[in-house]
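Researcher: Good morning. I'm working through a list of sequences from a screen, and I'd like to move beyond sequence-only analysis. For each chain I'm collecting a predicted structure so we can compare shapes side by side. This is the next one on the list. No need for commentary yet; just the structure.
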Amino acid sequence: MVSGTALVSEKSRRNQPIVLKRQSPSCHKLTVTQTTKRFLRRRSPGSPPALALSSPASPSLTNTKPASSNQDGQQRGSYWITTFGCQMNKADSERMAGILETMGYQEAKAELDADLVLYNTCTIRDNAEQKVYSYLGRQAIRKRTNPNLTLIVAGCVAQQEGESLLRRVPELDLVMGPQHANRLETLLTQVQTGQQVVATEDHHILEDLTTARRDSSTCAWVNVIYGCNERCTYCVVPSVRGKEQSRVPDSIILEMEGLAARGFKEITLLGQNIDAYGRDLPGITAEGRRQHTLTDLLYQVHDVEGIERLRFATSHPRYFTERLIDACADLPKVCEHFHIPFQSGDNELLKAMARGYTVERYRRIIDRIRDRMPDAAISADVIVAFPGETDAQYRRTLALIEEIGFDQVNTAAYSPRPNTPAADWSNQLSEEVKVARLREINALVESTAKERNARYVGRIEQILAEGINPKDSSQLMGRTRTNRLTFFSADSPNGSKHRAGDLVDVRIDQVRSFSLTGTPVIN
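Model: Good morning. Structure tokens for this chain:
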């Protein structure tokens, strides 16, 4: 599918969306004019005039005319964004919210009051995907009585389903894949001409100068690499997020400096496979290695003034090097928390998953981390009931969790995903097996996490305060350097009040499986 419009040059046409026009004629037929797809279909009662389908897609708007910047101060209505899934999606949502607010939109107080509703979706598991359709159902009902409502699906479900989403939910205005998040305003401009837009073509992700609307005033995500070149047999991410595209270090540093100037204290560098950063960038060092790696990037961004803490996620064991571990140990701002999914404790299953490493390789990574940083926290992801997983193979996964002593493990039962090899295998396991194994492994993960947390009792930990505890307004909440959520009194021993952004010394008094409670001290 090629994108473009009839009146633009071939070069610029490649970066334009495909256009669907909604017309009153009764037939549904497809014609191709040069590089533009046009879909003529029957209008349903109360539907808006014309529809445009475009390869880039982003949230749609109400019947207002977007502008490149809201220089006239015009109010353009309210918006609501619901985000499903990973940190990458959350970062994309913050950026899209920033674009909408630059255009003059204000955040709505409630989803059902908004003039523009955007669902930033996840397709990593089927239940997350089905939840999106449930949400869309109630918005479709709204749109039938309020044709000026702009309804958008962004993210991985949008990329996976593309045009078929419009057939399933004809009330949609915009369907846009993750690679097009930065083009939201351009896509909304097309929507406002009465078109339905579908933006799902491969697209070079442009540097976005928009100021994201951050959900936190203290901690921020910064994307450093988009997409994924892996081909794990269970995973839909490469087909919905595209090939790896690394940002150049200067752009990353510039964004971080801007965040520091606004008072942010902690940055999490994000990537689907963050330790693969830079392998698509040119350059070889005198030693014969790639010029741009995650290790080199950490050294480059470490000294951004005003940033107190650095984190990164998500790592892939295949690319996690000793050089990276040594850099994390040597750079004082890099926090001692590592999220490294292992997915299975059995080598045969890892091979079937096409993960590219062995259990022994994974153990060596953890041993090296703990040799350099003995108190480091390790978290991971794991899949149970992968096709063909025997009870013995599953037990090896349980044994690995006990052996490593993870601080946290995100667990999931295998969920067949479209366009992935494992989904077509004949050795699928029953739902009963999935539920039983998930229940057992969750109990182990919780008990292991509590055992790991026991080491904090009585210790004084430095907590970066992130905000007020929503369940107790007298408390603040924040995280240790090892990423453990901690609650503590907002009152300082010297009579002052702590606030978000403060680094607070806290004596840990209570531990639970996934959080701590403590008392501020003067250390």
